[in-house]
Amino acid sequence: MNCYDCLTRQEISAAVAVCTRCGAGLCLDHAHVAPQMVHEAAGTGRSTHSHNARRLTCGVCHEAEI
Fold first, then answer.
1. Known InterPro entries for this protein (predicted)?
2. β-bridge pairing 45-48 and 53-57
3. pTM to 2 decimals?
4. CB-count burial class (<10 Å; 0-12, 13-18, 19+) for 12
């Protein structure tokens, strides 16, 4: 799979990740990494893990979330 953002610029670069929102392939230059809290059901409430997960998004989705 190739990086979608590179292909729109007539460049070819191997994708190393996939955007968690839109599914576009991303190279290292176009991947935005952000922490994401992990929650799970615990009894009648909700439990939050002490460590954050890693969340990868493309530039378009990253800007839309800010």
1. UCP037465_Znf (IPR017211)
2. unpaired
3. 0.77
4. exposed
